[in-house]
Amino acid sequence: MHCPFCHNPDSRVVDTRIADDGASIRRRRECTACKKRFTTLETSSFQVVKRSGVVEPFSRNKVVAGVLRACQGRPVTDDQLAVLAQQVEEQLRSTGVSNVSSEEVGKAILPFLRELDEIAYLRFASVYRAFNSLEDFEAAIATLRGRAQEQAKPKRTRSKKRAREDAPTLLDD
């Protein structure tokens, strides 16, 4: 790291701390030549490759802005959108690659948005997946209904007779 004061290429690390956001590291450095101190901020490189081939840094704000249009008029708070953007970034970073396509970002948004608001999910999916007909919407709605029915099914419980048979008795000791 070059010193910002005298441009000496050598400096030593005096202190290291995790930044408030938890995604970067702050290092306090001292120049070995002029002895002045300065701070550096280190973050991991994570970039999005757009369809046009342009590469740009991943931005949670862009995720929020894209999803915000789908959530217009829906009972979704800014905090919920911020959490969604964080979840999307964490999920994408967990893949271990430093470059992801914009298509992968869209795919990563869909499951989190479906859990947050189904109507916003349908709106976002209709643009992202380029719905061309009512059949596309019907298929997406049928999938949502199927998931809702699966989640609504009661868990199988043991019968009372079986529960009595499995219950410990005084004689079991």
UniProtKB/TrEMBL annotation:
Family matches, as Pfam families: ATP-cone (PF03477), Zn_ribbon_NrdR (PF22811)
Region (Disordered): 147-173
ZnF start-end (unnamed): 3-34
Cofactor annotation comment: Binds 1 zinc ion.
Keyword field: ATP-binding, DNA-binding, Metal-binding, Nucleotide-binding, Repressor, Transcription, Transcription regulation, Zinc, Zinc-finger
A GO molecular function held by the record: zinc ion binding
Domain ATP-cone: 46-136
GO BP term (any one): negative regulation of DNA-templated transcription
InterPro entries from the UniProt entry: ATP-cone_dom, NrdR-like_N, RNR_NrdR-like
Required cofactor(s): Zn(2+)
Family: Belongs to the NrdR family.
Role according to the record: Negatively regulates transcription of bacterial ribonucleotide reductase nrd genes and operons by binding to NrdR-boxes.
The protein, known as: Transcriptional repressor NrdR
Protein's organism: Schaalia hyovaginalis
Gene (name only): nrdR
